[in-house]
C-alpha cells in the first residue's frame, strides 16, 4: 500500500499567512450563512424571515427608548468581557464573573442602603464604586490564591463560587436587608442620592465601560503587566525561567478581573436596577465569555460584539410582542449566529485538505 492510500481522506493543516482581507471575508460569510439558516427556521415556523429581522433591528434601534434599552443591555456585556479578558489571556479560566459582579453589587448596596443620608451624592457614589471594586476583586482573589498556592482547578472553583454569593443575596433579600412588609423577599429601592446620573437618557455606565475599553487595550498591549500576562499564558515554565513570579501574576490579574466585574456590579445596582436582587448579573458573566472569545480578547472588538448581542437581546423582546415569536426561538437564532461566528474562527486558523489535493509543495515533499 503506497503513502497516498495510507493518508486519511480528510486532514487538517494550520493556515499560514492568511491575509486580513480573507479572514474578514470568512467572518462575513459566516454571519450571512447564520442569517440564512435562522431565516429558514423562521420560515419553517410560518414567519416572514425578512420581516422578522427587520423587526429585530427596529425593536432595538427604531426609537430613542429602544436605543436606550439596547445601551443598557450593552453596558454589562462589554464591562464583563473586559473583566475576564486578562484572565483568559493568561489561560486562567475565570468562569466566576457572575459571582464577582454579584459580590461587587452587594458591597455597593450596603453603602446605598445605610450611608445614603450620611454622604453627599458624588462622594457616596465614589465610595460605592470603591466598595464594588474591592468586593469583586477580593472575591476573585480567593480562587486565584488557591490556584497559585495549590494548583486547584480554577474553572470549577470560580463556577461554584457563583452559587455561593448568589445564595448570600437570597439570604439578604429575605433577612437583614428585606424591606417592609416582611415576607416580600425584596430589598428596598435606592435613595436618589445613591443613583448614578443619566447622560443622553442612559445612566452613565456606558461612558465608564468605553473608557475601560481604552484602558484595558493599553494595559494588555503596552504595559509590563500585560506582557507578563501574555508570557504566563504561553508557558508558565518559560515565565518562571525568565524570573517572573507566576503566583503573584495570577493573583494580581484575577484581582484586577474581579475588580472590574465588581465595578459592573456597582453600575448595575446604582444605574440599571437601583436595587439589589439575586439575578443582578443576569447571566452577563457567562455571555461575556462568548463576547471575549469572538473578539479574540481584543477590547475594541468586544465593543462591536457586545453591541450586536445587545441588539439581538432587545430585538428578541420586540419580536415576541409584535409577531408572537417565542423568546426561545429568538434565543435559538442568537445561538445559531454565535455558533457560526465561533465556528468560522476554526476555518481561519485551519484548512481542510482532501487526499489527492494537497498543495504542490506537500506533494513534492511526499515524493
Helical coverage, percent range: over 70%
List the uncertain runs.
Answer: none
Oligomer: single chain
Compute the gyration radius: what is it?
24 Å
User: What string gives the helices and strands in order?
Assistant: HEHHHHHHEEHHHHHHHEH
Name the descriptors.
single chain, 367 residues, mainly alpha, two-stranded antiparallel sheet, two-stranded antiparallel ribbon, 15 helices, 4 strands
Describe the structure.
The chain is mainly α and 367 residues long. The protein has a domain at 78-301. The chain contains 15 helices and four strands. Strand 2 and strand 3 (202-203) form a beta hairpin. Helix 4 packs across helix 13 (299-323) and helix 8 (205-222) packs antiparallel against helix 13 (299-323). The longest helix is centred in the middle third of the chain and has 30 residues, at 121-150. The mean pLDDT is 89.
Amino acid at each position: 500500500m503506497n503513502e497516498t492510500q495510507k493518508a486519511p481522506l480528510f486532514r487538517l493543516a494550520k493556515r499560514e499567512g492568511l491575509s486580513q482581507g480573507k479572514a474578514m471575508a470568512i467572518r462575513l460569510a459566516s454571519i450571512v450563512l447564520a442569517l440564512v439558516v435562522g431565516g429558514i427556521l423562521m420560515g419553517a415556523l410560518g414567519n416572514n424571515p425578512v420581516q422578522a429581522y427587520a423587526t429585530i433591528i427596529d425593536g432595538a434601534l427604531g426609537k430613542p427608548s429602544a436605543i436606550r434599552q439596547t445601551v443598557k443591555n450593552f453596558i454589562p456585556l462589554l464591562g464583563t468581557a473586559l473583566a475576564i479578558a486578562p484572565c483568559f489571556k493568561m489561560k486562567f479560566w475565570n468562569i466566576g464573573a457572575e459571582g464577582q459582579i454579584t459580590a461587587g453589587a452587594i458591597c455597593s448596596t450596603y453603602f446605598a442602603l445605610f450611608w445614603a443620608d450620611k454622604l453627599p451624592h458624588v462622594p457616596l457614589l465614589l465610595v460605592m464604586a470603591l466598595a464594588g471594586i474591592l468586593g469583586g476583586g477580593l472575591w476573585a482573589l480567593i480562587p486565584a490564591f488557591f490556584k497559585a498556592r495549590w494548583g486547584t482547578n480554577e474553572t470549577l472553583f470560580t463556577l461554584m463560587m457563583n452559587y455561593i454569593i448568589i445564595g448570600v443575596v437570597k439570604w439578604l433579600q429575605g433577612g437583614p436587608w428585606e424591606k417592609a412588609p416582611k415576607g416580600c423577599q425584596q430589598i428596598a429601592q435606592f435613595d436618589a442620592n445613591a443613583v448614578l446620573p443619566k447622560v443622553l437618557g442612559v445612566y452613565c455606565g456606558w461612558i465608564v465601560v468605553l473608557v475601560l475599553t481604552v484602558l484595558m487595550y493599553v494595559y494588555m498591549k503596552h504595559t509590563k503587566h500585560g506582557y507578563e500576562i501574555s508570557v504566563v499564558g504561553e508557558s508558565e515554565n518559560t515565565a518562571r525561567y525568565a524570573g517572573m513570579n507566576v503566583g503573584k501574576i495570577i493573583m494580581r490579574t484575577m484581582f484586577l478581573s474581579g475588580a472590574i466585574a465588581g465595578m459592573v456590579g456597582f453600575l448595575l445596582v446604582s444605574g440599571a436596577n437601583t436595587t439589589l436582587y439575586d439575578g443582578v448579573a443576569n447571566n452577563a458573566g457567562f455571555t461575556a465569555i462568548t463576547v471575549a472569545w469572538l473578539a479574540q480578547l481584543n477590547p475594541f472588538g468586544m465593543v462591536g460584539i457586545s453591541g450586536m448581542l445587545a441588539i439581538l437581546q432587545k430585538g428578541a423582546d420586540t419580536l415576541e410582542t409584535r409577531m408572537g415569536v417565542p423568546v426561545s426561538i429568538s434565543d435559538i437564532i442568537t445561538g445559531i449566529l454565535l455558533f457560526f461566528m465561533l465556528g468560522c474562527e476554526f476555518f481561519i486558523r485551519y484548512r481542510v485538505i482532501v487526499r489527492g489535493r494537497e498543495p504542490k509543495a506537500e506533494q513534492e515533499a511526499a515524493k
